[in-house]
Here is the input.
Amino acid sequence: MPAGGKTLLRVAAVQLNSTADKAANMAAADRLVRAAAADGAKLIVLPEKWTALGRDEELRGAAETLQGPAVAWACAIARELAVDLVAGSIVESPASGQKLANTSVHVSPQGEVLAVYRKVHMFDVEIEGRSYRESDIEDPGDEIVLSETATGVSLGMSICYDLRFPELYRILAVRGARVIVVPAAFTLPTTRDHWEVLLRARAIENQAFVVAANQIGPHPGGLRSGGRSMIVDPWGVVLAQAGDREGHIVADLDLERQLEIRAQLPALANRRPSAYRWPREAHA
Here is the structure.
């Protein structure tokens, strides 16, 4: 929206404390999306697994197809409020014989699904003595997804652990992404030590806005997320950061300032793809 001669896009990140209670999670999401829209947000992002978060069996129980109630709600509320909505991610029911998927959808203000992104990188790690094995029940996606808002702003899709893989974000930026969304359920230790650094790095190196909606607090099965949802500008400045509770944050993205940054410090234009050669193997 224009303001003072500038082209601004007001965005919001919604921070939730999702549990295995799907109905309660959806009610909280509905309340906070409405609050974000009331604050003028035209692009709203929900966190990862906003419909249900917990043990493997609880995730399986909450899984649904893209024709299920979660996406139906997302389409209905986006149309009602006339907003672009990135419905974080849901646990998507598999096709026959396959595992679940961790799936994000972008819904237009007309209530239409514009893009579907399935998380590419599986969270198979050990943190402070606890093992996480996302690939035990979920299959990774294999497609990098770029969408576009109602105002014509290119939107890069990602989810949580993807944040640690700069290749994904660079490809999104090269393809034209100006805003990149990061629905997440970052663990408490990694939120504390890595979250802000990684978000600001992805914003700076790709000269893109980053809208990151994180989960907060305890979840079933001893899981705990760190909150601190953030909106970061292409210079790496944190425009908004959430506190340690459910809620939403908003910020105005100055799209003209982004073009100035890309023109004055043309890191994307100065790339030399002909000099980059991937090693045949990655030695972890």
In short: The mean pLDDT is 95. Residues 167 and 279 are 14 Å apart (CA to CA).
